[in-house]
UniProtKB/TrEMBL annotation:
A GO MF label: chromatin binding
InterPro entries with a match to the protein in the record: AraC-bd (IPR003313), BAH_dom (IPR001025), Homeodomain-like_sf (IPR009057), HTH-like (IPR037923), HTH_AraC (IPR018060)
Protein keywords: DNA-binding, Transcription, Transcription regulation
Phylogenetic lineage: Bacteria, Pseudomonadati, Bacteroidota, Flavobacteriia, Flavobacteriales
Organism: Aquimarina aggregata
Domain HTH araC/xylS-type: 184-284
Gene3D superfamilies per UniProt: Homeodomain-like
Glycoprotein among keywords: no
Highest taxon listed in the record's lineage: Bacteria
Domain BAH: 57-206
Protein name according to UniProt: AraC family transcriptional regulator
Amino acid sequence: MPRTIIENIVIHHYKEETFFTFCKYTTIRFFEIVYIEKGNGAIKINGKKVSYSASSIFVFVPDDIYIIQAETPTTVTAIKFLKSFFRNSSSQNTRLPINHWFRKIEEILNSESHQLREMQFESDPDRKHLVSLVNMVANEYLNRQSFDIFIIENSLSVILHLIARNIQYINIETIKEVKSSKIQQIINYIHSNIYNPELLSTKNLANEFHIASNYISEYFKKHTDVSLKKYILHYKLKLVETRLKYTDSQDSEIALELGFTDSSHLNKTFKTYKNISLSEFKANLV
């Protein structure tokens, strides 16, 4: 049976099952991690099938619909962050690093390169660390009498960090053809450091990737059809949309975090590029 240990986070653990019911949370799920410890079969994700086997790890975002079709008894741990988790209405969650966690997840929400949602890892140690942490959370969940909330909170934080750093970020709408791994590296760097504007200066990017500072903008546009400055701005505006959709953050808070002068500056920029004001965008979400 599912169990809520932290308010609005649901944890499931199924051992050697062939039928699963935990997809019922889809309509209120914000983000989900599914670790398959044992078993073989397929997961139908948004109408497409992908095979799974022992040690497969999947991530699901809002509106994903999936069904596990087990061929052999399957052991699964699923960690679901419900949409309400990142709202500020819960007093229980005020002591958690929710904003930090959201930053990790929002990088994933704005990645379009993992359509089938199966995690790929840059290194085997990262996969092993993630599996170990998910198992730790599951073990604390199963220990119903004396689970350690400190272990669960800190394990979740590291889990999200590991997932975020192993997602490959390519915005397929703006990248016409990525033949250079350096372009991929620059994009990854921009996404990872979007809250550190000093690291995204032309000078720093040029130094980081060993490209002449008077050429890096031209180099980026040559490979992506969009200027470096505009790409950074467009990505920030995507993050603004994500914040407006899934959090209760005030416009002024979003502006401060993303380097806009104030909420007025953010609203003006948002309207220029999105043809809609912040208030109109939020009204359309209701």
